[in-house]
Design a protein that fits this description.
By secondary structure, this protein is mainly alpha-helical. It is about 45% helix and about 10% strand. The chain has a 3-stranded mixed beta sheet, with helices on one face.
């Protein structure tokens, strides 16, 4: 047995888990590409580094709600502050994440609460009524005490108790900070 039998010969075919780019091989000077030991060493490095390079090449797709893998959708939702999506199927998560920017822009307004309720409870007939209380004074001196702002959220159906609880938590989370909100659920017919 000769000494050349002990040295691994670099194969020209990339292993299944290595990308076909072979970026390190192509960057080597020709003198190293002719050396079997150097090519075996470079092949081992490519085996480790090519999946990382591939991930980095595709990184923007991981943050796009339409292209991201299903396992990343919950992480993106947490990152964007839309935590209510954990129990939703991936299709609903993608739809909601597509509107997350608009939801963040409208947060703290009646329109933002209406959008949040329509995204998180699409099957419930919900409507928001803003009582729009404004106090105007033409007198000098301190402004008269204005009543606290108030929203009413009407649910025209009778959802199960756990859905009502989730609805109340969502309203509390997405309502304007200084506004009182009343949830009014239709009574079940007897």
């Amino acid at each position: 047995m000769s000494s050349t039998d002990l040295v691994p010969v670099a194969s020209t075919a990339a292993p299944a888990s290595v990308s076909a780019r072979r970026a390190l091989r192509h960057e080597l000077p020709a003198i190293y590409r002719e050396e079997p030991f150097a090519m075996a060493f470079v092949e081992a490095l490519e085996y480790v580094l090519d999946p990382i390079g591939t991930l980095l090449d595709c990184l923007p797709a991981h943050f796009d709600s339409e292209l991201a893998p299903d396992y990343l959708l919950v992480a993106i939702a947490h990152w964007l502050g839309v935590d209510e999506l954990e129990t939703e199927p991936p299709e609903r998560r993608r739809e909601t994440l597509a509107d997350a920017g608009e939801l963040a822009r409208r947060r703290g307004t009646r329109a933002g609460m209406e959008l949040a309720l329509s995204l998180f409870f699409p099957d419930l007939p919900l409507r928001v009524q803003d009582h729009g209380l404004v106090t105007v004074s033409t007198e000098d001196g301190p402004a008269p005490e204005a009543p606290a702002p108030l929203f009413d959220v009407y649910c025209d159906s009778t959802p199960p108790q756990e859905v009502q609880l989730a609805l109340a938590q969502t309203i509390d989370r997405w309502k304007p900070a200084s506004v009182r909100v009343r949830l009014r659920v239709k009574r079940a017919s007897k």
